[in-house]
């Protein structure tokens, strides 16, 4: 299949192109498109056969449900059983935006879209290209991140092209996304709202609206017998080809540990920040962003993991990013990429020597 990669000028959006993409969706085909979080791989959510194509294109396990994207509140009532008051309040505060909510589904939503579950995940994105495409595509677009299963989520159309070329007819290129991490998922089918996946909308932001809210135990428990409630969170995601290790400790300790490990080899990758980049003495050093700007870190994470794959590094050391607000979401993705490998060097006392600058 020939894949058409079409640029869309946000300042002067071509309705003709989006209409054409909408026709593909209405006919049961797939179109990749930008959202404010990551690029999505869209299909008509109410057409089971179309949803099935998504699983095939991504190589996604069939028990991993899709998020249904809508453009207005009326659409929500058509596909969910009941909208609890808390959900209405959260929608008012954060929709359109990077928040996904889980409801009991109505019959019109096929099990092929929900991975066999009787609940459905719904999100109203804020990206204008996404919103127009949803309208043109029939109003209900199922869209997982547009990567091959297991690869980092795509934050540019080029990333989508790398993964989906030859597998889908069209990719809408709206430039790099704003946030770079997938939406926060909140389950509203329980007594209290539960965060199933951390994202740009944080626990404290949710609590400021609903009062009570908690984080799924399956996400925070060290005990791996507690399963995450979102089926997709149990898979090892975002895995770069190289082994990735996260290093925790004071800035001094972390820099000196990584410098000791790296021995200047270009086959060793380092993920650092603006604050530390000058202090690494060798290796393939990539700056993810500034600690003063959490969003800069979030938005570059997946792109950096993909770059290291292209550079064929063998090992990657990353600083830790437990930043105040977005840190939860950033670390959730980074830990998954690292297969939960982290090393705490805060107990280190100068046994790791720093190499002399060359
Ligand atoms: O930001 C986003 O949410 C992006 C953009 C494209 O909107 N989409 C995205 O979709 O990240 P995906 O498929 O990569 O992740 C969806 C996650 C999976 O972990 C899935 O298991 C979970 O949502 N999920 C979907 N429906 C669910 C349900 N009914 N119950 C529990 N978890 C659900
Ligand atoms: Mg995904």
Short description:
This protein has 358 residues and is α/β, with parallel strands linked by helices. The chain contains 12 helices and 16 strands. It folds into 2 domains: 231 residues, Alpha-Beta Complex (DHBP synthase); 113 residues, Threonylcarbamoyl-AMP synthase, C-terminal domain (Rossmann fold, 3-Layer(aba) Sandwich), CATH 3.40.50.
Structural summary, described in words:
With 358 residues, the chain is of the alpha/beta class. The protein has 12 helices and 16 strands. It folds into 2 domains: 231 residues, DHBP synthase; 113 residues, Threonylcarbamoyl-AMP synthase, C-terminal domain (Rossmann fold), CATH 3.40.50. It is 32% helix and 18% strand. The strands form 2 sheets. It has an 11-stranded mixed β-sheet with strand order 1-8-2-3-7-4-6-5-9-10-11, sandwiched between helices. Strand 2 and strand 3 form a beta hairpin. It is globular. The C terminus is likely disordered. Threonylcarbamoyladenylate binds next to strand 5, strand 6 and strand 10.
Low-confidence stretches: 350-358
Number of helices: 12
Structural class determined from secondary elements: alpha/beta
How much of the sequence is in beta strands? 15-25%
List SSEs in N-to-C order: EHEEHEHHEHEHEHEEEHEHEHEEHEHE
Top-tier CATH class of the largest domain: Alpha Beta
Shape: globular
Number of domains: 2
Largest sheet: 11 strands, mixed
What binds here, in terms of ligands, is:
threonylcarbamoyladenylate, magnesium ion
For the biggest β-sheet, the strand order reads: 1-8-2-3-7-4-6-5-9-10-11
């Amino acid at each position: 299949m020939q894949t058409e990669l079409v640029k869309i000028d946000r300042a002067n959006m071509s309705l003709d192109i989006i209409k054409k993409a909408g026709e593909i969706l209405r006919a049961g085909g797939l179109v990749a498109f930008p959202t404010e979080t990551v690029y999505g791989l869209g299909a008509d959510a109410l057409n089971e056969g179309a949803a099935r194509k998504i699983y095939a294109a991504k190589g996604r396990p069939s028990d991993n449900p899709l998020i249904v994207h809508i453009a207005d509140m009326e659409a929500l009532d058509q596909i969910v059983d009941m909208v609890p008051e808390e959900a209405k309040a959260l929608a008012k505060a954060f929709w359109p935006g990077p928040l996904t909510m889980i409801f009991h589904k109505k019959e019109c939503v096929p099990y092929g879209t929900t991975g066999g579950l009787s609940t459905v995940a719904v999100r109203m994105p804020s990206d204008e290209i996404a919103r127009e495409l949803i309208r043109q595509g029939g109003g209900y677009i199922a869209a997982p991140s547009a990567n091959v299963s297991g690869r980092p989520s795509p934050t540019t159309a080029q990333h989508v092209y790398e993964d989906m070329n030859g597998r889908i007819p069209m990719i809408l290129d709206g430039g790099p996304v704003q946030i770079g991490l997938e939406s926060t998922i909140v389950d509203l089918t329980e007594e209290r709202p539960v965060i199933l996946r951390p994202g740009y909308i944080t626990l404290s932001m949710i609590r400021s609206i609903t009062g009570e809210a908690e984080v799924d135990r399956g996400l925070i428990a060290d005990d791996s017998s507690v399963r995450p409630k979102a089926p997709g969170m149990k898979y090892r995601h975002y895995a770069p080809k190289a082994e990735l290790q996260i290093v925790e400790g004071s800035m001094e300790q972390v820099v000196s540990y990584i410098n000791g490990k790296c021995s200047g080899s270009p086959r060793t990758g380092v993920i650092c920040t603006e604050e530390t980049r000058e202090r690494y003495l060798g290796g393939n050093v990539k700056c993810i962003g500034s600690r003063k700007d959490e969003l800069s870190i979030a938005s570059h994470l997946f792109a950096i993991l993909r770059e290291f794959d292209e550079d064929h590094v063998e090992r990657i050391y990353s600083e830790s990013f437990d930043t105040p607000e977005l840190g939860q979401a950033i670390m959730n993705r980074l830990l998954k990429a690292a297969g939960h490998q982290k090393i705490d060097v805060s107990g280190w006392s100068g046994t790791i020597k720093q190499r002399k600058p060359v």
